[in-house]
Structure formats: C-alpha cells, structure tokens
Amino acid sequence: MVTNELIDPPVPADHQPPRRSGLLFLLLVANSAMMAVYMGVGSILLPTQIAEIAGDDKVAVLGLIGGVSAIFATAFNPVAGALSDRSGRRSPWILGGALASLAGLAFLGSVSTALLVGIGWCLIQATMNVYQAAVTAIVPDRVAVARRGTASAVVGLGLPIGGTVGVLIASQTADHLRTGYLVFGAVIATAAMLLTAFCRDEPRSAAPASAAAAGADDGPRAPKGAQVKAFLSALGHHDFRWAFIGRALMVLGYFSVVGYQLYILDDHISLPGGLTPPAAMAVLTPVSMAAMALSTVVGGMLSDRWNRRKVFVGLSAALAGLVMAVPVISPTWTGMLVFSALNGLAFGCFMAVDTALVTLVLPRAEDAARDMGVLNIANAGPQIIAPFVASAVVTTLGGYTPLFLVGGGLSLIGALAILPIRNVR
Fold first, then answer.
1. What are phi and psi of 332, to 5 degrees?
2. pLDDT, position 213
3. Structure pTM?
4. CATH 3.30.559.10: does it fit domain 19-203+231-417?
5. How many Cβ atoms sit within 10 Å of the Cβ of residue 59?
6. Angle at 264 (CA atoms; ends 291, 246), nearest 5 degrees
7. Tens-place pLDDT, residues 104-119
8. What secondary structure letter does DSSP report for 17?
9. How far apart are the first and last CA of the chain?
C-alpha cells in the first residue's frame, strides 16, 4: 500500500518552504504557457500551415506528422524526467527545454514543405516535453499530500487559461504564421525564465542518497535492458498502471476530436455567414475553457474536502464520452457550442482530480519526476497520436461523425479503467 512517507520527499530540518501561493502562481504561469503552445500551435497554426502546403491531402499529412512526432514526445518526457531526478535539479531542464522550443518554433515558421514542417514539429515536441517533465515534477516535490487536489486544480487552470490565450493568439496570427510561431516561442521562454528565477531549485537529499545506495548495492552499471526495465518499473505497480491506462484513453479520446476541430469546422459544420473556422475556434475555445476552469477548481477542491478521487475521475471521463454524441445528433453551430461547454466541464474536472490521484499512486518519492514522466507518456503521447488516429477514422470510416463516436468510446473505456485502482478512494 502506498503511504504518505513514500510520496512526500524528505525535507531538511532547516528547510523553509516557499509561500504556496507564490509557487502555485508560478506553476500556473508555466503550465498556461505550455498549454498555449500545445493548443494554439497544435490546433490552429500547424493545421493551417499543413492545409496551405498539402491542400486536399491535409488530413493524411497532419495525421502522419502527428504520428511520427509522437515518438519524440513520448520518449523525451520520461527521459528528461529521469535525468532531472538524477541531477536533483529542475530549473536547467525547464529553461533549456523552453529556449530550445523557442528555436524550434522559429524554425517551423520559416519552412514551406511538409517534410521540414514534420521535422520542426518533432523538435518542438521533444523540447516541450523536456520542459513539461521538469515542471510536472514540482508538485510532488513541493506540495503536501493533503493539498494536492487544490494544488492540482490551480495548476490545472493552465489548460483553460493557456488554451484560451493560445487559440486567441493563433486565430489572430493564422494569416502570418511566422509571427505567430515567434510569439509562442516568446511566451514559453518568458514563462520558463519567471519560474526558474523566482522558484529556485531546493536541495533534494533523497535522490543523491538513493543513487549512492543503488551504486553500493548494484556495483557495475546494469545492462541497458535492465535500465529500461527499471525506467518503466512504475508500470508494474498495479494502481499506477491503471491510472496510466485511464489517462491515456481519456486524453486520446479528447484530442482525437479537439485536434481536428479546425478541419471539422471547415468541412463538417455549417458556420454562420462571415464566420471563418479560425474565428469560430476563437469563440468555441473560451466557452470550453471557461467551463473547464470552473470544473477544475470545483472538482479539485471538493475532492480534497471529501477525500475522494476516483468518483470524480470516473464520472468526468464518462461524461466526456457521452457528450461526444451531441455533434452527432446536432451537427450545427449550436450543437458545437453545447458540445464545447459540456466537454470542457468534463475534461477540466478529470485532469484536475486525476493529477491529484496520480501523485497518490507514485511508487517512490525519489523517482517522482521519472515516474511522472512515464505517466506523461499517457498525457503527451495521445495528444500527438490523436491526429494519426483521427486521420485513419476520417479517411477509412467516411467523415467526422465516426470520429466523434470513436472519441466518445475511448473516453468511456477510460472511465472504466479507473475502477480497478485499489489504494485511493
């Protein structure tokens, strides 16, 4: 059974923790900037750039680029997390990942072929996941178990805030792609500099001690196969494995639809006269994100008050699956507005409380960043794989209605995956 002692890293006797409000605000800024890049670039700028290059083949090209870049996203997150655990520091990885992302975004804005766009997006996914791995580890590093629901809710506001800002920026710069990419690069670099300047690394005595002990016990370095096995060892932990599965299915179902929303609005929904797809995204995203912000805060706080995580996670995942039927029943602009609001409510509550749940099933405190990085494979990977899945569904099953049904089914199965978790209520 996971205990609090295994989750909270040992704290030196003379340690003076930073003010929680200041720490959480900086984490909110850092996560908002990250989600602005993911949502603004991934939902508007990248699909717009691909549509200009590929024309009628845009669905297949976006899916291919998304599938290939998934390799980079899913590999770099846990690797960077493990390296930051070993170094005992988060700031160099946060700042380095952000500055490298700035360079990658500048490159992406300067290219005009599908191959170079694919290379640029792969680089950005790699560097953004270096940044994400280190930022994600700060909550289990610094926040007590009893406050993780509230902390996760505050940090989780990065999705509605960052997503809204990102889509608004992208909708205004969709006709000037190079400028849009540079703006997003500046956003992520600024957030990283603020976080690393005002939330400096603290000594992490557990990690070096553990490393020393491991070296004394193990002798020569283990073979690569054994290292990989140790790296993914958290998946052998029953509760962590089911949390991983539930997160992966929910995120995949959500982003399979959201990631193709620009093309859905362009090719599937009859928009009001004069409303372009990017402008429609600028309306739908704030609706979704406002609902997401509300459910993020309320869900996180109530899960702390009642000390219940599974019921919030399971019900919100189920709701996310069911609301996918709204655009199928009503494929109209009104239907999309209703869908966006309900989907935002469901996904916000899920991400806030599921993040708190995950911190309670981490096998070892000293491997927190590594294991959160492994879990983030279930978060980052599906977001990039989703266009590949969506492309296959749209092209083989004949349109966007099957895409909503597949996305809903994935979320419903994700809700069921929460049930086997044993040691969290």
1. -130, 170
2. 34
3. 0.73
4. no
5. 21
6. 55
7. 999 999 999 999 999 9
8. P
9. 13
